[in-house]
Amino acid sequence: MIVFGIMIGVPLLIAILGIRVVQQQYRGIVERFGKYNRYVNPGLSWIIPFVESMHKRDVRAHTLDIPAQPVITKDNVEINVDGIIWAKPYASEDAIKKTYYNIDNWKRAIQELSQTNLRQEFGSLTLDESLISRQIISGNLEKELDRLTDEWGIKVDKVEIKLIDPPNDIKNAMHKQKTAEQERRAMKLEATGRHEAAQQDKLAQIQKAEGEREAAIKVAQGKAEAIKLVNESAERFFKGNAVELKKLEVTENSLRNNSKIILSKDGIAPQVIIGNLPVEGSHA
Fold first, then answer.
1. What whole-number distance in Å separates Cα of residue 130 and Cα of residue 154?
2. pLDDT of residue 8
3. Collapsing DSSP states into helix, strand and coil, what is residue 82?
4. Residue range 184-203, pLDDT digits in tens
5. Entry pTM
6. Which whole-number Å values give the CA distances from 249 to 144, 245, 252, 260, 270, in the listed order?
7. DSSP 234
8. Which of 40, 170, 234, 280 is 20 to 30 A from 140, alpha carbon to alpha carbon?
């Protein structure tokens, strides 16, 4: 019975020891006596204890830091640069095998490779070009790293340059330049504002002058119309009485005191009534 129990217990123990679980975010390989044997997908798997071994690889994106390092630009300015890389192993069988058999430590290898390529990228640009080409440099690094790491079964998803730090004297000079540029823009805006205000004042004066001129023209036209009407009325109503009007004018200029002007049916006949004038020395 004891022997029988041992015979049953050993296979059961081996079966239990050989159970392996592969999580969803992992892929695995099985080696038998140190040699590649098979590829393992997520789920429950079994290996032969003491004969086979399983290695699992996380196929999620990994965040890798590019340590800050000094680089020399094309115009011989030393700047400090650092960045971040997002990379992950491909999930295929061939790629997982490459991550184990083609490179010893793929994360460290990518970091070292990124530092080398970072120096090359900035070495081909001047300081001014470097400061405005962050996205271009990141894109170039991503393409180059993705090409080089393909033989390791690794996909480089993205590269970001976090910091481009020039020397303090360069930063001070850039700050002064920026301040001067802002002052120049402020002065330009102020001058533009004054110019536009002057233009508005000039336009307002022109409009005011045009309004006054149009008003004067209208007044003159009104006066001319009134004179025209008076002339037409005089021509129409007083043309036949010119002689009588002249007599009246002469009479008014000659006789001022106690004069009587009689308008008869035959026309204007001024008469002077002498008897109405007071005589010197007479009594009433």
1. 28
2. 62
3. strand
4. 777 777 778 777 877 888 88
5. 0.59
6. 118, 6, 5, 14, 11
7. H
8. 170
Give residue for tokens 């309004």. 211
Who contacts 263 (Cβ-Cβ below 8 Å, separation ≥6)? 269
Output the pLDDT for position 4.
Answer: 46
Q: Which amino acid is at 204?
A: A
Q: Cα separations (Å) of 211 from 152, 205, 206, 208? A: 85, 10, 9, 5
- pLDDT greater than 50 at residue 272: no
Instruction: Give SS3 for 22.
Output: strand
What residue has token string 């400061």? 131
Measure the CA dihedral 32/33/36/42, to 10°. 40
| Rg of the chain (C-alpha set) | 57
What is the mean predicted confidence (pLDDT) over 75-83?
92
| 201: CB partners within 8 A, 6+ apart | none
Question: Phi/psi class of residue 263: alpha, beta or left (left: φ > 0; alpha: ψ in -120 to 50)?
Answer: beta
Residue predicted with more confidence, 1 or 228:
228
**Dihedral (CA of 68, 73, 79, 84) sign:** negative
Residues 6+ apart with CB under 8 A from 260: 271, 272, 273, 276
Q: What is the pLDDT of residue 123?
A: 92
Closest CA to 30 of 40, 22, 16, 43: 40
Q: Tokens 């800050």 correspond to what residue?
A: 68
Residues of the chain above pLDDT 70, percent: 74
Cα-Cα end-to-end distance for the chain = 191
Residue the block writes with tokens 């992992």: 26
